[in-house]
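During the second half of the funding period, the structural biology subgroup turned its attention to how the target accommodates small molecules. The most pressing case was zinc ion, which had performed well in the primary screen but for which no bound structure existed. We therefore specified the complex as follows and requested a full 3D prediction, including the ligand pose.
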Amino acid sequence: MLIPMGNFLALIEELKASHTNHGVPHSPNPKELDRHLLCPQCHHNMDTHYYGGPGNIVIDDCSRCFLNWLDHGELMRIVEAPDRSYGEEYGDYHGADRER
Ligand SMILES: [Zn+2]
C-alpha cells in the first residue's frame, strides 16, 4: 500500500489506538533490504531501508514523491510492535542511507 509520508505517522497512531497491542517484537530480516521497487508514481528506484520505529520492518520510500511503500503485513507489524522505543529510534530513520 502507498502512504504519503505526511500521513504515515498519523496513520500508525490511528491504527495503534484501535488495535490490541500484542507486544511481540518482530526480528529484522536483512533479505528484505535486497528488494528493489520502482515508485508507482514516478518510476524511479525507491529507497529501501529499515523503518526506524517499532516493528523492525523494511520499507521503501520515494524521496521525489514523498511516498512510503509497505504491504499490509508490514504496516500491521508496526502497529503491533511495542511502543516504548518509538521516540528513541526515530533519529535513525535515515541511518541506512549512509551505506550507499
Ligand atoms: Zn516517486
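Two results from this model are relevant to the next phase. Strands lie at 2-4, 47-50, 58-62, 67-69. The chain has a mean pLDDT of 81.
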